[in-house]
């Protein structure tokens, strides 16, 4: 369960960073 939350949070952060970088 923890891994899933960590992955989801990481993906969200990555997406946010990509949008910001754009």
Automatic annotation (TrEMBL):
Protein name: Uncharacterized protein LOC107606497
Organism: Rhizophora mucronata
């Amino acid at each position: 369960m923890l891994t899933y939350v960590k992955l989801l949070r990481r993906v969200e952060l990555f997406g946010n960073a990509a949008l910001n970088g754009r």
